[in-house]
Design goal:
The chain is an alpha/beta fold. 41% of the residues lie in helices and 20% in strands. The structure holds pantoate. The site of pantoate has 10 residues, from strand 2 and helix 8.
Length: 282
């Protein structure tokens, strides 16, 4: 497995792959990998002859420099795990390899209609950071396929829209959420939960699944379902950010013709923000 830091080296490798007519799948990450990430890698492997994982803690996705500095970095350990999955290359660039003109003068990529609500309301600018980075990675790697997790539903939707709008020749695959035995979605943040918080956390998925079943059964009073969901989470000890029932296609309020719905929620459990979603076809 090649571990690459420099753009020139990346270009040489990609050219070699293209020369052999190999398809390339990219899995963008910020490192600190867990089983959820590894499932993205496995899906990438099923969809291309070559798999490259990027590991880059992207400063434009953090509100505060302290949070960026404190983000866990574990490149060596991550590489060991990726090697076992037969990943072809890890691209772990330095800051100036991604933002050669510096952060303040970096060209921006923004998807206006999707970036400001839900998680974007909590962290203004977060999704501009994601699209800015993912567009750069797509330009550098030119992947045939890129894999994102369904857990970050809004993120994968924004990336899909950006890809279509800017005509990147990359197919976006959304990978199913990997869960612990009790239903809690795997996340790098779960490690910050205390024992008591960890015991209460599965209520998030339980609540989303129950609402999804009600939607599937034809319940259409979405405002009431959302309110019930918020109460359930509060009772379980969460500080609720949002519980919402939306069209999966664009996160707008569903109308009668809508056939795919996403039920999504984000809430604080102590100091840890958890998010999850369930998609229902009706
Ligand atoms: O979901 C993430 O880990 C990040 O937002 C991503 C897509 C790797 C961009 O930094």
């Amino acid at each position: 497995m090649d571990v690459i830091e420099e753009k020139d080296e990346l270009h040489e490798l990609i050219e070699d792959w293209l020369h052999h007519s190999d398809h390339v799948a990219l899995v963008p990450t910020m490192g600190n990998l867990h089983a959820g990430h590894l499932s993205l890698v496995e899906l990438a492997r099923e969809n291309a002859e070559r798999v490259i994982v990027s590991i880059f803690v992207n400063p434009t996705q953090f509100d505060r420099v302290e949070d960026f500095d404190a983000y866990p970095r574990s490149l060596e350990k991550d590489c060991l795990r990726l090697r076992k999955l037969n990943v072809d290359a890890v691209f772990a660039p330095q800051l100036d390899g991604i933002y050669p003109f510096g952060l303040d003068d970096a060209a921006r990529v923004v998807v206006p209609s999707l970036k400001d609500d839900f998680c974007g309301a909590r962290h203004p600018g977060y999704f501009d950071g994601v699209t800015g980075l993912v567009a750069r990675l797509f330009a550098l790697v030119q992947p045939d396929v890129a894999v994102f997790g369904q857990k970050d539903f809004q993120e994968q939707l924004i990336v899909r829209r950006m890809t279509e709008d800017l005509n990147f020749p990359t197919r976006i695959i959304t990978a199913p959420t990997i869960r612990e035995d009790d239903g809690l979605a795997m996340s790098s943040r779960n490690q910050f939960l205390s024992d008591e918080e960890r015991a209460a956390a599965p209520e998030l998925y339980a609540m989303l699944s129950d609402i999804a079943s009600e939607v599937q059964d034809g319940q259409q009073d979405y405002a009431a379902l959302e309110e019930d969901g918020r109460s359930r989470l509060s009772e379980a000890g969460f500080d609720v950010d949002y519980v919402a029932i939306r069209r999966a296609e664009n996160m707008q309020v569903p109308d009668r013709d809508c056939d795919e719905i996403v039920v999504l929620a984000a809430a604080m459990m102590g100091k840890t923000r958890l998010l999850d979603n369930v998609v229902v076809t009706i």
